[in-house]
Amino acid sequence: MAPIISVKNLQKTYDNGFQALKGVDLDIQEGEVLALLGPNGAGKTTLISIICGLARATGGSVTVGGYDISKDFREARKLIGLVPQEMSIEIFEKVEPNVKHSRRLFGKGKNDAYVEQILRDLTLWDKKDNRIRELSGGMKRRVMIAKALSHEPRILFLDEPTAGVDVELRKEMWAVMSELKKSGVTIILTTHYIEEAEAMADRVGVISKGELLLVEETNTLMKSFGKKMLEIELDKPVDAIPPALLDRGVTLGEDGRTLYYSYDTAAEKTGITDLLAEVRKAGLTMSDLSTRQSSLEDIFVDLVAKQKEEETEDAA
């Protein structure tokens, strides 16, 4: 099946010479949820802006639903709903008329039943006659999603959809995204919240300094990069790690009582048995043992750190 979005060698260089995107390649399948992770200035919003026709690329190509965004912009844009990071709604307007107006902007005919269904799905129907300024931040974000869905797009871009909302509202927004996915909408979201990507995304893309470092299925990414951390609690604090343990990559916590050892879950041997023997040989007494799985945040940090190391080596 052809991807609903295909990005080939996409580049964006500004007049001052800054390269926001450096040859990005990305295919997105219909009906999937793709999370784009990256620090500020990584190129996430630039990538979305180009796909949505809000910015021009300086190289490469993008097709949306088979339409080239530079040659068939109108047809491509009809397929896309965009919820930008910044609030961009008319706060003095009422909710329902505002959503209907967005539908008309895309040349869609009147369909009150469809608009009502969107508002109900987003728990906005009882707020339909409220002025937008009267709503909470989370509800305003829902209105923006309703506006983006008003013209029945097949693709929804969410740029930092839960930025600035509390944990409870964030989880409510995740529920909204789950329902949208069930309806067949393709969702591309950028986020700073690693747990959001872990909870929602079928695939995760990591972007840094204009380069797409990888795109991988979330579960596969966790398995292939996943490591576990063994934490050894000592009965008494120590001033330094014994040399034999230091050679094994063991680190010491600030409290002086916790030893940390990272190991690959997929490796043939974890080295834990030998490590524990070395702990006893060093005369240390363990009071507790525990392990924790590495998170997507650990993987993300490692990837970005590796990119920085490679850049330093290239510059040397």
TrEMBL record:
Keywords: ATP-binding, Nucleotide-binding, Transport
Pfam family, one: ABC_tran
InterPro entries to which the protein is assigned, alphabetical: AAA+_ATPase, ABC_transporter-like_ATP-bd, ABC_transporter-like_CS, ABC_transporter_ATP-binding, P-loop_NTPase
Gene3D superfamilies reported in the protein's UniProt record: P-loop containing nucleotide triphosphate hydrolases (3.40.50.300)
Entry GO MF terms: ATP binding; ATP hydrolysis activity
CDD domains the UniProt entry points to: ABC_DR_subfamily_A
Domain ABC transporter: 5-234
Name of the protein: ABC multidrug/carbohydrate efflux transporter, ATPase subunit
